[in-house]
Write a structure and sequence with these properties.
With 518 residues, this protein is of the alpha+beta class. The protein has helices at residues 2-37, 54-62, 65-76, 92-99, 108-112, 126-136, 142-146, 149-170, 180-197, 203-206, 210-227, 234-237, 239-264, 275-280, 293-324, 326-339, 349-355, 357-369, 404-407, 427-434, 450-467, 506-509, and strands at 79-83, 86-89, 175-179, 283-284, 289-290, 377-380, 386-388, 392-394, 399-402, 468-471, 495-498, 500-503, 511-516. A hairpin with a 1-residue loop joins strand 11 (495-498) and strand 12. It has a 4-stranded mixed β-sheet, with helices on both faces. It is globular. Keywords: Heme, Iron, Metal-binding, Monooxygenase, Oxidoreductase.
């Protein structure tokens, strides 16, 4: 018996040694390859990028990816190594080259974001993306949006101004303090819910809505899942996230069921087809079938999330810049007052685009300096690789992070790139520079909702600025007097980047005193 035990122990010991030996040999071989033979070793970057993705993943989890990548680019150049299998690219011309073709498909981080079904944003499939774009395209054309401009003005601008007027009255009639991050987010949420579902959720009136809370947490979770797919489990084990996820899914599912019922009973009557109707009646070219409920839910939640967060955050940064640069703000106010002196007539987006040249320049400069899509978007280099400027070759099947914020800070294109200077977008040269602003992406997967974003910005902000005075509260820790010691520019509110780059502390940094103009 003791002999058998000794023999078994010896066998177990031997097997353990074999396993340890194999693992050790594999580790040595792997490290040797990463250190000396990986084709990406010719790309400059920090030493650890040859061996690990941990620092990169941590920055995605913490929402500090922009600071993380910026520091590496400033030290090593426009094309840098950020992990064993990936690079980051910050030159605008290189980014446009990659975005111009479906040849460079989205990286695996995009598919990692999926939780319900692949959608127009997360899909890596060219045919699928083309199909979804065709299905929803009519909603976002200039002609399509022109039919809903009155609705957008009513649901967005008029409702927002009514809410502000109410809060001023309730505060004594002279002024009130609002959180403009919240106000813009609720406004965009009401607009996109009306356009997407034909249903106003009245978040302006109520000061919020659970679907906005869902959007805020989902943007963060999408970024986290892109770094560590296993974190999908958070949606199923954390009670608060579980509740919001169920509410978000049910919100979309209820709208889908109600619409299908109306269509089946021939009771659906509308002067326009909203996004839900476009999707619910569309045929998938992949299988010649209608979209499933999971497909519809995924697309609708994406549309509501993108429509709520991106435009509202862009307007937040614009107003934030105005408060930091009072001379710019005064020019904007004067231009709006001169172009549209009759306050009884609403300012329409086409009129604003035509007459508010300086205001439009400030929008471009805000989107350049603080793009809401500033964090990297990922593409694969294809089986042939890709040749970038300066004869830099990215090997096949490499994940490329396209760093929009970095492209917007390129000193070869943007003189004094860290300065907020709307004048750079004026005149003929300014028109050329507008094409260098990549906040909506470029090429075959350019943001389909960009026309809606411009319509909201050109409608909401000019009407608000004409009617109200804005100023920072006395207790604000930010302002034109608080400047960066190195750049001499006013210090911006701290940001965090989870898909959308937004203020990190909006409840602290986005408060403003608002009053009626005399």
């Amino acid at each position: 018996m003791s002999y058998l035990l000794s023999r078994n122990n010896f066998t177990q010991f031997t097997n353990t040694r074999v396993i340890v030996g194999v693992l050790g040999a594999y580790t040595v071989a792997k490290l040797t390859y990463l250190a000396f033979f990986n084709p990406l070793n010719v790309i400059p970057g920090p030493w650890w990028a040859r061996f690990t993705s941990i620092p990169h993943s941590i920055s995605l989890l913490r929402g500090t990816i922009i600071e993380f990548v910026t520091e590496i680019h400033e030290k090593y150049g426009s094309v840098v190594r950020i992990n064993p299998d990936g690079v980051s690219i910050s030159r605008g011309s290189d980014i446009r080259k990659v975005l111009a073709s479906y040849k460079y498909e989205k990286g695996t981080k995009s598919s990692n974001m999926n939780e319900i079904h692949e959608d127009i944003f997360t899909t890596r499939n060219e045919s699928f993306n083309r199909m979804r774009r065709m299905q929803v395209a009519p909603a976002f054309t200039h002609s399509g949006l022109s039919t809903v401009e009155d609705l957008i003005f009513e649901v967005g601008v008029e409702s927002l101004m009514s809410k502000i007027d109410e809060e001023i009255r309730n505060n004594g009639g002279k002024f009130t303090i609002i959180n403009y991050f919240n106000k813009f987010q609720t406004t965009s949420a009401d607009i996109i819910s009306e356009l997407a579902l034909g249903n106003n959720i009245h978040s302006i009136r109520d000061g919020g809505h659970y679907i906005i809370d869902f959007v805020n947490i989902e943007m963060q979770l999408m970024a986290m899942r892109s770094a560590i797919p296993f974190l999908t489990i958070l949606s199923f084990i954390i009670p608060k996230i579980m509740k919001l996820r169920i509410q978000g899914i049910n919100f979309s599912l209820d709208a889908i069921k109600e619409r299908k019922k109306l269509i089946e009973e021939n009771r659906y009557k509308s002067k326009r087809d909203d996004i839900l109707h476009m999707y619910i009646t569309a045929i998938n070219s992949t299988n010649q079938k209608l979209l499933s409920d999971s497909e519809l839910i995924s697309e609708l939640l994406l549309m509501i999330g993108a429509g709520t967060d991106t435009t509202s955050t862009t307007m937040t940064w614009i107003l934030h810049f105005y408060m930091l640069y009072p001379d710019v703000y005064k020019k904007v106010v004067d231009e709006i007052n001169d172009a549209f002196p009759d306050k009884s007539k609403p300012i329409r987006h086409q009129e604003a685009r035509k007459n508010l040249v300086y205001f439009t320049a400030t929008v471009y400069e805000s989107m350049r300096l603080q793009p809401v899509s500033g964090s990297p978007t990922y593409r694969m280099s294809s089986e042939e690789g890709v040749l970038l400027e300066e004869n830099i070759f990215i090997p096949p099947n490499t994940e490329m992070g396209l760093f929009i914020q970095g492209a917007h800070m390129d000193e070869d294109i943007w003189k004094n790139s860290k300065s907020f200077n709307p004048d750079r977008f004026l005149g003929e040269e300014g028109e050329k520079l507008k094409k260098e602003v990549l906040v909506f992406g470029a090429g075959v997967r350019i943001c389909p909702g960009r026309n809606l974003a411009w319509l909201e910005i050109l409608t909401i902000l000019p009407n608000l600025i004409r009617k109200y005075e804005f100023k920072l509260p006395e207790e604000s820790i930010l302002g034109p007097q608080h400047v960066d010691e190195i750049t001499g520019e006013p210090i911006l509110a701290k940001s965090r980047a989870y898909i959308v780059t937004a203020p990190k502390y909006p409840q602290r940094d986005c408060n403003i005193v608002i009053s009626h103009k005399i």
